[in-house]
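A reminder from the course coordinator: this example appears on the midterm review sheet, so study it carefully.

Given structure:
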């Protein structure tokens, strides 16, 4: 996608509510184990990244419908006002009911504590929160709370108290339906916010989070760890691959109460797909069977991205991506590495700037919502612009 086209799309959407891959001219697999969580230190260094993944400007444009426009009042910028601000050092967590809570806390406070890339960031306080009607929250929140207390984190009674003690917040609640309610006071207080997957359990809630962040000039960031796990970023902008013309990703899918099928766990493979193709999907077609969900997205200039969701306990699961470029094809199946996401979160807080454009983060949710609508209509194509316009953010 030419830079001007990509910029135009992002502006339109924004105005709305170690293992290194071995690359050859043909497909080669990156050897890894689903139980491995760290890059292979003996792997060769990845090739440098020089430009966002997209077809070259020389690719002939095709007549396509307009890119999706979210509901009015969506994110316009990720850049806060230029006023001098104190450095962020103290982090707080909201929602201590996911395994990411102790995992991220150990990385910030112990395992990566001496890494200069963390800039001295520490998790110092947390709000237990949780949802008694959501089993994965109700049955785990006490145990995870005890774990981070042992890591030196102070447990406070509510979000208002938390905001008096921290400079940045990680919203971790496992139930995406709680994210808007919990994000609102943080954004209204002007505190930079990372939101763990999913951004929200519905597109209207996601649009409202983006609108609030823009209204209050607060930097925000959401992503799956798949986007930053070593091996996948190296698939982008590599001369051995060339311009990426298409991509297939896959990940495990789990159903969760009161969440659309893809929102709670399919997000991992879909966020990975967007990390390689970027924003600009026009329409999706989705198919569901007892074993899988297959979502095909049509991007500008004829690029195609496919996501395969492998249903839990129906077959071998994992995480992987294959990219199809002008010069070569490459595959990576490295499993999730939380340390690379934590380093990205640290950069976000230290720089007060999301590594992903707001419009792209919101489009990921629009893509999933359009896939749900396509399934509801029996697998017919659904335009992302239609779904975005139909969603009405709550106020």
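Designed residues:
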């Amino acid at each position: 996608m030419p830079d001007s086209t990509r910029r135009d799309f992002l502006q339109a959407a924004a105005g709305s509510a170690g293992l290194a891959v071995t690359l050859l001219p043909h497909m080669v697999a990156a050897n890894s184990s689903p139980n491995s969580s760290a890059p292979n230190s003996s792997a060769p260094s990845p090739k440098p990244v020089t430009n966002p993944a997209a077809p070259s400007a020389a690719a002939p444009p095709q007549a396509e419908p307009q890119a999706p426009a979210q509901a009015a009042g969506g994110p316009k910028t990720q850049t806060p006002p230029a006023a001098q601000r104190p450095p962020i050092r103290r982090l707080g967590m909201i929602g201590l009911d996911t395994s990411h809570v102790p995992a991220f806390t150990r990385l910030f406070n112990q395992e990566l504590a001496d890494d200069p890339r963390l800039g001295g960031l520490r998790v110092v306080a947390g709000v237990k929160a949780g949802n008694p009607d959501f089993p994965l929250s109700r049955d785990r929140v006490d145990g995870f709370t005890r774990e981070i207390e042992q890591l030196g984190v102070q447990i406070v009674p509510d979000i208002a108290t938390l905001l008096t003690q921290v400079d940045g917040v990680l919203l971790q609640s496992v139930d995406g339906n709680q994210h808007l309610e919990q994000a609102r006071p943080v954004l209204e207080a002007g505190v930079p916010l990372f939101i763990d997957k999913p951004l929200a359990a519905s597109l209207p809630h996601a649009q409202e989070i983006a609108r609030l962040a823009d209204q209050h000039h607060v930097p925000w960031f959401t992503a799956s760890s798949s986007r930053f796990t070593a091996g996948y970023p190296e698939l982008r902008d590599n001369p051995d691959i060339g311009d990426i013309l298409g991509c297939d990703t896959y990940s495990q899918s789990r159903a969760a109460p009161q969440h659309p099928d893809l929102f709670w766990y399919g997000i991992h493979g879909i966020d990975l797909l967007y990390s390689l193709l970027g924003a600009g999907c026009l329409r999706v077609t989705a198919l569901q069977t007892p074993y899988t969900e297959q979502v095909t997205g049509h991007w500008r200039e004829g690029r195609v991205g496919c996501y395969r969701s492998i249903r839990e306990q129906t077959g071998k699961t994992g995480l992987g991506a294959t990219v199809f470029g002008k010069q070569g094809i490459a595959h990576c199946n490295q499993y999730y590495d939380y340390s690379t996401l934590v380093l990205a979160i640290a950069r976000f807080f230290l720089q007060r700037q999301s590594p992903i454009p707001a419009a792209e983060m919101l489009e990921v949710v629009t893509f999933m919502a359009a896939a749900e609508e396509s399934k509801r209509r029996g697998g017919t194509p659904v335009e992302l612009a239609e779904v975005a316009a139909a969603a009405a953010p709550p106020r």
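Residues 90-225+339-355 form a domain with the Rossmann fold fold (CATH 3.40.50.720). The chain has two domains: 3-31+51-71+228-336+368-388, 90-225+339-355.
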